[in-house]
Amino acid sequence: MRPGYILQIARFTLQEAVSRRLILAGVLISFGFIGLYTLGFHFAYDKSLETSTTAEERLSLGVAFATLTLFGVYVVNYLASFLALFLSVAAVSGEVDSGTLHAVLARPLRRSEFVIGRWLGYACMIGVYILAMTGLVLLVAKLVADYEVPNPAPALLLMLLEGVLLLTLSLFGSTIMPTLANGVVVFTLLGLAWLAGVIEFVGRLLSSAPNSQGGDALLNIGTAVSLLLPSDALWRGASYFLESPSMLAALGATRGGIPFFSTLPPPPALIWWSLGYVAVTLGGAVLAFRARDL
Predict the structure, then answer these.
(1) 92-101, 120-129, 188-197 — which one is most confidently predicted on average?
(2) Of 92-96, 120-124, 266-270, 288-292, where does mean pLDDT reach its minimum?
(3) Domain range for residue 207?
(4) In the 3-class helix/strand/coil scheme, how is the chain assigned residue by residue?
(5) For the residues 74-96, what does the mean pLDDT come to?
(6) How many structural domains is the chain composed of?
(7) What's the gap between Cα 44 and its chain centre?
(8) Is the dihedral of CA 120, 158, 73, 165 positive or negative?
(9) pLDDT at 54 over 70
(10) Does residue 180 contact residue 98 with C-beta atoms inside 8 Å?
(11) Most buried in the list 81, 195, 220, 255, measured by CB within 10 Å?
(12) What is the pLDDT of residues 180-237, one digit of tens each?
């Protein structure tokens, strides 16, 4: 493995995204969201100050601001998830279909270096996007309502891991399937991962309720699907570090709150599973591309 060739492919991947105006389109859409989010947060803040007079109302206001901030990051997380899949869904299959790979691989370039270089380029784009967009959402909350999330660093790391995991899965699919088939598969898996989170939430509610049945079965189903693609589980783990103590108390009082967020920190086993998932899937992509007939 030669790092110089890998970095050249990563640079080519970034240049390709710029030339195709993918980055420009993503920036325009993202700034549109940030603008609408800032406007909505500002109006909600002004209106709440006008109507809140008692101490209890002020306390509920803190929960409301925390929820608005968390939903803003939730949207960023899903925009990043779609971006990760969209960028890498044709990373290899698209180049094979266009015939570009014949010219690229005619040079002294190994197939493994091409795959890892593409992966590195996309990972850099996703990482910058998540850090920039999440930072803007948190900045809006700070400037408008003077609200700060308790522990953003681990949340950002988990979101980065989720983005890299999704693009690695999509890249692997691109080495063994046509672009359209790969897109259908990976976006369906993303939807199933989200549904698994909802199923786990319902199962947890049923398990904690007296005289209820089926909760354990739903928990097992949700866990099994989450192992297949732990993207939503990683987001819920990240959400825990973005929740204020008052919000955690409010969610705990409602037996788990809502299915999009978690009141518990992510288990270490989930993080290790996700890291291993990325390593194995990337290795599978390298091996599959080596065996692929161009």
Answers:
(1) 120-129
(2) 92-96
(3) 3-291
(4) CCHHHHHHHHHHHHHHHHHCCHHHHHHHHHHHHHHHHHHHHHHHHHHHHHHCCCHHHHHHHHHHHHHHHHHHHHHHHHHHHHHHHHHHCCCCHHHHHHCHHHHHCCCCCCHHHHHHHHHHHHHHHHHHHHHHHHHHHHHHHHHHHCCCCCCHHHHHHHHHHHHHHHHHHHHHHHHHCCHHHHHHHHHHHHHHHHHHHHHHHHHHHHHHCCCCCCHHHHHHHHHHHHHHCCHHHHHHHHHHHHCCHHHHHHHHHCCCCCCCCCCCCCCHHHHHHHHHHHHHHHHHHHHHHHHCCC
(5) 87
(6) 1
(7) 27
(8) positive
(9) no
(10) no
(11) 81
(12) 899 999 999 998 888 888 888 777 777 665 655 666 777 778 788 888 899 999 999 9
pLDDT at 132 over 90: yes
Which amino acid type is present at position 199?
Answer: I
Q: Can you tell me the distance from the alpha carbon of 244 to that of 16, in angstroms, rounded to the nearest whole number?
A: 41
